[in-house]
Amino acid sequence: MSDMSLAMKDNVTPIRPDVIRDAAASAQAPVVVEKPLSTLDRLYNQAWLRKVMILIVLALIWEAYGRYLNNNLLFPTFSETMGAFFQNIENGVLPARAWSSIKVLLMGYACGIVLASLLTAFAIMSRIGTDLLETLTSMFNPLPAIALLPLALIWFGLGNGSLVFVLVHSVTWAIALNTHSGFLSVSKTLKMVGRNYGLGGFKYISRILIPAAFPSILTGLKIGWAFAWRTLIAAELVFGVSSGSGGLGWFIFENKNSLDIPTVFAGLLTVIIIGLVVENVIFRAIEANTIDRWGMQS
Fold it and tell me: Most exposed: 107, 205, 245, 278, by fewest CB within 10 Å?
């Protein structure tokens, strides 16, 4: 009698031959043990460390090129720039100018966010609002904010009012455009869920649309910040003095007139450092606590 017949006779479930072969093959298969990463590999997997290495290489290239030219009126070395940078930090000039620029930037950025939010909310709630937002965006988004400087001088005079006006223009349309596009990309199923729960108006926007469209909103905030920062420095280069003091743009312009080129580069370096901090620290922290945490990153 075969093994199959004996197993059936004793009410024992027979084991299929292919299962026996698979089990034998598994037993004979070599066990793969993952090799632990070396210290160099673990360090290479750190994104911040890779970026720091890139910055160090760029600084070395800067230093080498400056020494090759040997003319600090044309292109100072990295060491000369850092010397001017720390000197102006110690005497308090550079922090005061940077804070002056940041204060104006925050005012214009906040006003731009509020205006963009109102336009986008109106566009979501009505067809007229959508037509209005699309028309205004098509008209003003291609218009460089720096082109409004003459009008800003006439309307608001030489001061922070003119700077805030120009910043609002540079911020509003980028944020409104990305936010509205994000709202339109929200799935119909999610929208119907919100409607079925009886949500409408501000609750519908805040509880359904904003969380679902937050990646696009955050992109708009980043673009708006970049536009505002560039516009502010350019505007300050032209009329950045208010009550006898100015921001980083005016700091750069003053030292250019004095032919203190290392200090000019120190001002430019400050602009870059502030941009890097905002992009890689502030916005990255917001992204980590929202998009990454919610699992919305593709």
Answer: 245
In the chain, how many domains are there? 1
Highest mean pLDDT among 24-28, 115-119, 249-253: 115-119
List, in order, residues 6 or more apart from 121 with CB less than 8 Å away: 129, 202, 205
Question: Is residue 4 in a domain?
Answer: no
Q: Which of 111, 119, 135, 131 is nearest to 176 (CA)?
A: 119
149-153, 264-268, 285-289, 291-295, range with greatest mean pLDDT: 264-268
**Residue 195 sits in which domain range?**
91-294
Planar angle of CA 53, 97, 250, nearest 5 degrees: 100
Residue 7: what pLDDT? 45
Q: Which two tokens stand for residue 208?
A: 């359904």
Ordered alpha helix ranges (H), the chain: 3-9, 17-28, 39-44, 47-69, 78-90, 93-125, 127-140, 149-156, 160-184, 188-196, 201-204, 210-212, 214-239, 248-257, 261-277, 283-289, 291-294
Q: What is the pLDDT of residues 25-36, one digit of tens each?
A: 555 545 555 667
CATH number at residue 213: 1.10.3720.10
Q: Does some domain include residue 227?
A: yes
Token code pair at residue 91: 């005497």
Residue 207 lies in a domain: yes
259 burial via Cβ count (<10 Å: 0-12, 13-18, 19+): exposed
287 within some domain: yes
Q: Which residues, at least 6 apart from 168, have a Cβ–Cβ distance to it below 8 Å?
A: 108, 111, 112, 115
